[in-house]
Design goal:
single chain; 162 residues; alpha+beta; 3 helices; 3 strands
C-alpha cells in the first residue's frame, strides 16, 4: 500500500475528542429523559394505588350498609364495641362498621394522606359514601366531599341503596 493511503486510513479510523464529547452529551440528555419518565411513572403509580384503595374502602362501606338495612348510616357515629362476637343489634353494628371504616381510611401508614370518610343521605332512599384525601401532599385536610371538595382534596364517591 502507498503511504498516502495508509495515512488516510489512519485518519478515518480514529475519533476526535470533540466527537466523543458530543456523543457523551447526547447520551447524557437521553439518560436524563429516561430518569424523568421513571419519576413520572412512579408518581402516577402512587396516585393510582391511592385511588384504588379509596374505591375499595368506599365499596366496603357500601357492602356494610347493604348487609345492615334499616339503619341511617349518615347519622351514626363510630364506636368500638363487641360486634365481632355477634353481641350487638343493628345500631351497634352500624356504629362498629363506621368505626372500622374510619380506622382503615385514617391508617397511619396507609396511602391516603389527611383522609376522611363521609356518609350522607342522597335523597333517593340511599347514601352517598365519599372518601377525600390530599393526593398531592400539599397539607390539605379533607373536611367534606359533597357538594364540593376543598382545594387540594381528591374525592371518590359511591352511591348505594340498602
Amino acid at each position: 500500500m502507498k503511504t498516502q493511503d495508509m495515512n488516510a486510513l489512519k485518519k478515518q479510523a480514529a475519533f476526535t475528542l470533540l466527537e466523543v464529547m458530543i456523543a457523551l452529551v447526547i447520551f447524557s440528555i437521553g439518560l436524563l429523559g429516561l430518569a424523568g419518565l421513571q419519576s413520572a411513572g412512579i408518581r402516577n403509580n402512587q396516585v393510582s394505588y391511592a385511588r384504588t384503595i379509596a374505591q375499595q374502602l368506599a365499596y366496603d362501606m357500601s357492602d356494610r350498609i347493604r348487609n345492615n338495612p334499616g339503619v341511617d348510616y349518615a347519622a351514626v357515629a363510630g364506636a368500638a364495641n363487641d360486634c365481632i362476637n355477634g353481641n350487638c343489634n343493628s345500631a351497634a353494628l352500624a356504629a362498629f362498621d363506621v368505626f372500622e371504616w374510619n380506622a382503615a381510611i385514617t391508617a397511619p401508614n396507609g396511602p391516603l394522606r389527611n383522609a376522611a370518610g363521609f356518609i350522607t343521605n342522597n335523597g333517593v332512599n340511599g347514601f352517598t359514601i365519599s372518601i377525600g384525601w390530599d393526593e398531592n401532599g400539599i397539607g390539605a385536610v379533607a373536611t367534606g366531599c359533597n357538594p364540593a371538595a376543598p382545594a387540594g382534596i381528591v374525592c371518590v364517591s359511591v352511591d348505594t341503596i340498602p
